[in-house]
Amino acid sequence: MSRFLLRGNLRRCIASQIRMASDQLGELGKGAGKGGGGGGSVREAGGAFGKREVAEEERYFRQKERAQMEALRKHHSEEIDHHKKEIERLQKEIDRHKGKIRKLNHDD
């Protein structure tokens, strides 16, 4: 599960870098052929609506990334809790076995 999430994060990171690199081509939302082309009719038309579309898209991806990071943090917290409980269970088992050994040594 965590491997799948990490691959997704890597994919988003690369996509984010590509979006940042596209800023070097020109201003996004300024119309076709100026770095904002190919993103649909609104973005191709340029102007204020094109800029707004780019801003909305970036906001959507940031929001999505935040939600995924929060889910990843929650997953890791749950994993930590699970492992702590497993440690406690195993420690009780160790204590139980030590008690049996003490009892066997005492019976000798």
UniProtKB/TrEMBL annotation:
Single GO term (MF): ATPase inhibitor activity
Coiled coil, from the record: 66-107
Xref: Pfam families: IATP (PF04568)
Region (Disordered) location: 28-49
GO cellular component: mitochondrion
SUPFAM superfamilies cross-referenced by the UniProt entry: F1 ATPase inhibitor, IF1, C-terminal domain
Protein localization: Mitochondrion
Main location, first listed in the record: mitochondrion
Keywords: Coiled coil, Mitochondrion, Transit peptide
GO BP annotations listed: erythrocyte differentiation; heme biosynthetic process; optokinetic behavior; regulation of neuroinflammatory response; visual perception
Gly residues composition bias: residue spans: 28-41
Task performed by this protein: Endogenous F(1)F(o)-ATPase inhibitor limiting ATP depletion when the mitochondrial membrane potential falls below a threshold and the F(1)F(o)-ATP synthase starts hydrolyzing ATP to pump protons out of the mitochondrial matrix. Required to avoid the consumption of cellular ATP when the F(1)F(o)-ATP synthase enzyme acts as an ATP hydrolase. Indirectly acts as a regulator of heme synthesis in erythroid tissues: regulates heme synthesis by modulating the mitochondrial pH and redox potential, allowing FECH to efficiently catalyze the incorporation of iron into protoporphyrin IX to produce heme.
Complex formation: Homodimer; represents the active form and is present at a pH value below 6.5. Homotetramer; represents the inactive form and is present at a pH value above 7.0.
Family to which this protein belongs: Belongs to the ATPase inhibitor family.
Record comment regarding domains: Forms an alpha-helical dimer with monomers associated via an antiparallel alpha-helical coiled coil, leaving each N-terminal inhibitory region accessible for interaction with an F1 catalytic domain. The inhibitory N-terminal region binds the alpha(ADP-bound)-beta(ADP-bound) (ATP5F1A-ATP5F1B) interface of F1-ATPase, and also contact the central gamma subunit (ATP5F1C). This dimeric state is favored by pH values below 7.0, and at higher values the dimers associate to form inactive homotetramer, where the inhibitory region is occluded, masking its inhibitory activity.
Record-given protein name: ATPase inhibitor, mitochondrial
Species, as recorded: Cottoperca gobio (Frogmouth)
Gene name per UniProt: atp5if1a
